[in-house]
Specification:
Length: about 130
Amino acid sequence: QVQLVESGGGLVQAGGSLRLSCAASGRTFNINAMAWFRQVLGKEREFVATVGWYGGLTSYADSVKGRFTISRDNSKTMLYLQMNVLKPEDTAVYYCAARSKRCSGAGCYIASAYDYWGQGTQVSVSS
């Protein structure tokens, strides 16, 4: 099992920045990749960004490309999401996720590809 705990959410004005953190513990040697998803009440969980745990290859949703940066620190088993130029439409609960399974292409951008989830942290962006 892998346990994930997010932190760093909050309220920020449009144009501002926030940095989310996710601490991974447990059987972290099983992790193949980690990701951030977000969800608005009543909508499906949406892919934000992913990073390969060993190779470091990153991928982003078009809606955040150029504004968000995903990174990881393997030695500390930490995952980060630096969010800049935040917009009101970025308001959501943000979830950290990890997967042990391999995936390919668009299959890596869906929630069902991930085995482990954090409890979520709220990000609210005011206009």
